[in-house]
Amino acid sequence: MRRMTTISAEQGLVDFAKKAAEYMEKSPRTTTFGDLEPGTFLAIRWGLGDDCLLVVKLDDDFHPLNFQQAIPRGDKSVDGLPEMPYREHELEGSR
Asked: 40 is in which domain, residue-wise?
């Protein structure tokens, strides 16, 4: 599906995604951001590295938008736990 838009029409969505990313960067265990009211945006932490945001709008016509690598990962760990490997060959002892 294609849709036509302008940058100014999407600015509210981009501003919300930035605000959600900043909040989640400061709160690594937070998985959602937003209100659960009709017509509002909801951001969900997403992706293998937990650094993406899936943004949905709570209405029937909105198509979800995934902002990749939106949340800065800093030391790439959460609460001192090491970053999870992405490929099978990186797992210890796997063959």
From this structure: 8-73
Q: Give the Cα separation of 68 and 51 in Å (integer).
A: 7
On whether the CB atoms of residues 21 and 52 are closer than 8 A, the answer is no
State both tokens at 24: 């989640």
Mind listing the pLDDT tens digit for each residue in 60-71?
Answer: 888 787 888 888
Token couple for 27: 């709160």
In a domain? residue 60 = yes
DSSP 15-36: HHHHHHHHHHHH-TT--EEE--
Cα–Cα distance, 18 to 42 (Å, whole number)? 12
Total domains in the chain come to 1
14 lies in a domain?
Answer: yes
Per residue in 71-84, pLDDT tens?
Answer: 887 655 444 444 44
